[in-house]
Amino acid sequence: MRTRIVALILSLACTPRFAVQAQEPLTPLWSHVDPYGAGSLLASYDVLSTRVAYDQGTDRIYRAIIEFSPGGPYRIQVFDTEGNDITPSPPVLLYGIDPGDYQVTHIIQLSVTNDTLSAIVRGEVYFNETDDLNWLKVMRTDGNPIYLFGCGSTPLNAFHRDMQGTLILAGDELRRYGPTGWPDGDISAPQTGGIAVLGDDVVLGVPPFLTHIDRSTMTTATSILVPSSASATTGVCLANLGSTFNYAATTSNGTMDLGLADINTGLIWARTILVPSGLVPTAYHVDENGDFWIAFVNHVTGVTDQGLLYRFHYSSGSYGVNSFSRRIDGIASSGTTLFLTGRVTGSTSDTYLAAFDIDLITDVPSTDVNALRIYPTPASTELRVDGLSPGTSRLTV
To answer: For residues 347 and 189, what is the distance between their CA atoms, to the nearest angstrom?
Structure first.
């Protein structure tokens, strides 16, 4: 039952009820470990990050490893779904704008579709730490470059490529590029870590008001309202099945708001989970069944980098939590199999790629849900209330 309170009489304090969620350890089907950063051409430096992507057209897994190795190229590893390394020779190399001139420090996003690899890479001019550069490199998986987007100091946070062209979230601006790589539109947009693209509809931002942009005209539509337990500090939106999308945002009070919404009909389900101190999200993914995955890692000094993996179900938002003895940097899937990549716990240079049977990953409905949801908060003129018992006729605030 939903009730709308038009007049806000008193400020509202709502304390969520949380339950401790059991954590089941993950057991991989197979695990490929690279000692000493063997995934790159320069193997004597610390690994900073890894990313993984799956190409449905070729049934191959692509992984990138970024090391702190000034000026070096970075190799893209290729695996089949059984874990066999089938990296081509010569390998696919991920350079900066000019090979050898840049120290690549982070991979923001990696994807591959129909033998075409795309990656947002952030780095610095060689030996000049004050000159930060960002670019989106698009190339074929044989290593031949196609496009280079968004060069410059503006951070590139997310992108989406399809037959209609490319969308890039650059700082506080959404840029549109045609299929040939020529820029043909832009619009102001909120900074966030991911964008949901559903045909001509683009959703991004943080709760309670998600920005809705018409891609064809590059104009804003009516905002999409979702619940918020506190002020959101970071956010991500990912496209799901049909016209639906997932959103997630960490908040100022140590919680995470997330849910599933439909572009046309609005909110489907929403959840608020407690994020223990020191845990930060490292990866998000929507699989082929519509389930929403979030990985966390503990960054508290002296605590082992152990990963946690949350799975939220498409139909209800119920979820299970699994622990993994390694940091999780990236998530990909191929229908029945989930792929994780990251750094091996206790090492600054060893990395792994592991596969898991999705059906064997813990599937436990959670009680870590607010029975009563009141949003948006803070509010000045209007509140919305979800979850009232049937037959409720009066609510005092």
So the answer is: 38
Among 129, 128, 130, 148, residue whose Cα is nearest residue 138: 148
- Spatial separation of the C-alpha atoms in residues 42 and 16, rounded to whole Å: 49
The full length of the chain comes to 397
CA distance 314 to 192: 23
- In angstroms, rounded to a whole number, what is the distance separating the alpha carbons of residues 67 and 34? 13
Cα angle: 82, vertex 333, 143; to 5 degrees: 75
Q: Which residue has the higher pLDDT, 242 or 6?
A: 242
Helix (H, G, I), strand (E, B) or coil at 358: helix
**Is the distance from CB of 94 to CB of 103 less than 8 angstroms?**
no
Share of the chain above pLDDT 90, in %: 46
- β-bridge mates for residue 198, sequence order: 201
3-state secondary structure of 192: coil
Six-digit token string for 289: 């069944």
**What pTM was computed for the model?**
0.83
Peptide bond into 208 cis (omega under 30): yes
Closest CA to 2 of 374, 264, 369, 258: 374
DSSP string, 34-95: EGGGTTSS--SS-EEEEEEEEETTTTEEEEEEEES-TT--EEEEEEETTS-B---SSPEEE-
Average pLDDT, the chain: 80
Strand partners, 354: 31, 340
Distances (CA, A) of 36 to 49, 150, 344, 347, 380: 13, 32, 10, 9, 55
Q: Side chain identity at 238, as an amino acid letter?
A: L
